[in-house]
Write a structure and sequence with these properties.
Structural class: alpha/beta
Largest sheet: 9 strands, mixed
Shape: globular
CATH class: Alpha Beta
Number of strands: 9
CATH architecture: 3-Layer(aba) Sandwich
Distance between the termini: 33 Å
């Protein structure tokens, strides 16, 4: 197996509940894709987030782990669970084709070379079926905030369909909180001239214009004020108090400049 550039830098650290907002978003927005199967990239030293995924996944689950020792530990720990554990590098194109309708890749590309992210996304897309969805991004260490790409595979082509911004408001709310958790290729694109500068300027302006002091109210009001390319999604059913802002620009999420 050929290793991707990031393999040596993967720490495998996670904790229970870190992906609770990702779980909630999948159930609220992408449940039909998940019903065709979910591919989990990276199990880590413990299988906590994979076990949490198994609690709600409506279809088969495949968990990929690149490190042999971690893969073996996970296979043993999850031997009684309805999951297929594979020792495999998700950043190397699948040789066997798609394994489901949705793939989630959380906190894997954070130290990846920016100019290689496009190739990484293309490799990830080979693990889902046509019309499948790839969610790739990051969150903080305990999962209170996060941001991720929504990539859609159509006729073998991967579309940068949207960005999702997640928060459970445990740290309050201001748009700038999400900047440092942007996906790897967009993290430095909020600066003047960057491809995310206009979006964050618009979001911040709407937040300032509608601000009341209640994080949840302000998040919803700012999102509603941003226009038709933005949708606010309530995640209460699976993450009490949590919300997501989905940005689906007409021309797709811009490439870094």
């Amino acid at each position: 197996m050929t290793s991707s550039p990031s393999v040596g830098r993967l720490r495998g650290k996670t904790r229970p509940g870190r992906l609770h907002l990702w779980d909630a978003l999948c159930q609220a927005v992408f449940v039909d894709s998940c019903a065709r199967g979910v591919v989990e990239v990276g199990i880590g030293e413990r299988a906590d987030t994979t076990r949490e995924l198994l609690q709600w996944a409506p279809g088969p689950v495949v968990a990929l782990e690149v490190h042999p020792r971690r893969a073996a530990l996970a296979a043993e720990a999850l031997s009684d669970a309805p999951v297929t554990v594979l020792e495999a590098d998700a950043l190397v194109p699948s040789e066997t084709g798609g394994r489901g309708g949705l793939l989630r890749c959380a906190n894997v590309l954070r130290q990846y070379p920016v100019d290689a992210v496009g190739r990484a996304h293309a490799a990830l897309s080979t693990w889902v079926d046509d019309e499948g969805v790839v969610l790739e991004g990051s969150c903080d260490k305990v999962g209170h905030v996060g941001a991720l790409h929504v990539l859609r595979k159509c006729d073998g082509t991967l579309q940068r369909a949207g960005l999702a911004f997640l928060t459970d408001f445990r740290r309050g709310f201001a748009p700038i909180q999400l900047r440092d958790h942007l996906p790897r290729d967009l993290r430095r694109q909020v600066r003047a001239g960057g491809c995310m500068a206009d979006f964050f300027f618009r979001w911040t302006r709407c937040w300032q214009d509608t601000r009341t002091g209640s994080p949840q109210v302000d998040f919803k009001a700012a999102g509603d004020a941003m226009g038709d390319d933005v949708e606010v999604v309530f995640l209460d059913a699976w993450s009490p108090g949590g919300m997501a802002l989905l940005w689906r620009p007409a021309g797709g999420v811009p490439l870094p400049q």
